[in-house]
Amino acid sequence: MEIEDKRKPTRNLALELVRVTEAAALGAGRFMGRGNKEAADAAAVEAMRLILKTVDMDGVIVIGEGEKDRAPMLFNGERVGNGSYPDVDVAVDPIDGTRPLAYGRLNAIATVAVAPRDTMFNPGPFVYMHKIAVGPEAKGVINVDAPVVDNLRAVAKAKGKKIEDLTAIVLDRPRHKELIAEIRGAGARLRQIPDGDVAAALMTAMPETGIDVLIGIGGTPEGVLAACALHAMGGEIQGKLYARNEEEMARGREAGYDFDRVLTMYDLVSSEDVFFAATGITDGELMRGVKYFSNSARTESLVVRGLTGTVRWITATHRWDKLNEMSAIQY
Ligand code: VTB
User: Fold this and answer.
1) Would you place residue 1 in the very low, low, confident or very high pLDDT band (cuts 50, 70, 90)?
2) Is a pLDDT exceeding 70 seen at residue 69?
3) N or C: more exposed end of the chain, with fewer CB within 10 A?
4) Cα dist. 85→55, 176, 247 in Å?
């Protein structure tokens, strides 16, 4: 007789996790355009923490965003969940795009991912990584170490397109000057985004967005979250840690990090048994943001389960009169 391993996830945890990202979005959405990143982040983190407590899991935060921006955070190593099985690693980015949210711009989302214990890459205090991400059609042809033009050619070939019809998405940062010149030199189209490279990585796996490949240096927490989502959606991401200066490089080496090593998607999250949820905070290409009404609010979320590859879109109406009676969060 087969004995069930209770320590492994057996249910679709993502359907519980979506309550976590919904709560973060509902809390943070009130701060849209109010110019206060910290207050928005605090609201998202607080709501996330409260709902995470109710999820059936024994979780350890491996990726708790906030270190780089000194924002309020769910701390690395913090225990979350109600302590029951399964044992899992948890990655959170309560707001990917605090700046766009604070200034009333597009594409801010709340995200969370869960995978079996000890399967997520822990980047420690090293905040940046090179990334290249693609959807399922171009899985297996990218190489974060190869010249940009080679990657673009390979992705175009895999998708049966001309390179001129390929669209790369890149964070708009001075550090990407050379990268942008190379993309232009290769003849590909380019989208530049102010923030939000988790959403950008997801777009590569959604043909309707028209985005083929994400390239550039972005946050490591966002890289691990994107890896969880893309692993589940059948796409691919590769990374390589990026040190901002000699001192950071030396510190990393001392701590045992290899800045030359290609981090495959399996290095970033080694299990396919991964769950990912995201909720729109401001309107975006992937999801609509939170809409507030007199006694309710509406959210739109994406829920993905790696084992089955099922992608669900969930629109929810949240009723304040009911929720405020029973929830620890006062909406
Ligand atoms: C990205 C982006 C985030 O950080 O990872 C980026 O997805 C990288 O860092 O929304 P810099 O902003 O310092 O370039 C964010 O912009 C915010 O943490």
Assistant:
1) very low
2) no
3) N
4) 10, 43, 41
Beta-bridge partner residues of 300: 315
Q: Per-residue pLDDT tens for 198-256?
A: 999 999 999 999 999 999 999 999 999 999 999 999 999 999 999 999 999 999 999 99
Which two structure tokens, joined as six digits, stand for 41? Answer: 């982040």
For residue 263, the SS3 value is strand
Mutate to test the pocket of ligand 1, among 195, 197, 217, 237 (most ligand atoms within 8 A of CB): 195
Distance CA 85, CA 283 (A): 35
Contact residues for 177 (Cβ-Cβ < 8 A; gap 6+):
none
Of ligand 1's listed atoms, the one at least distance from the Cα of 199 is 7
Is ligand 1 within 6 A of the CB of residue 195?
Answer: yes
Compute the average pLDDT of residues 271-299: 97
Give me ligand 1 centre to Cα 68, in Å: 9
Q: Which residue's CA is minimally distant from atom 16 of ligand 1?
A: 195
Per-residue pLDDT tens digits for 149-183: 999 999 999 999 999 999 999 999 999 999 999 99
Note the pTM of the prediction, 2 decimals.
0.94
| Ligand 1 centroid to residue 219 C-alpha, Å | 5
How many angstroms does the Cα of residue 37 sit away from the middle of ligand 1? Answer: 13
Whether residue 149 contacts residue 92, with contact meaning beta carbons closer than 8 Å, is answered with no
Q: Residues 90, 207: contact at Cβ < 8 Å?
A: no
Of 182, 218, 201, nearest to 138 (Cα)?
A: 201
Q: What is the pLDDT of residues 322-331, one digit of tens each?
A: 888 777 777 7
Mean pLDDT, to the nearest integer, of 47-52? 93
CA of 200 relative to ligand 1 center, distance in Å: 12
Q: Is the link from the previous residue into 86 a cis peptide, with omega within 30 of 0?
A: yes
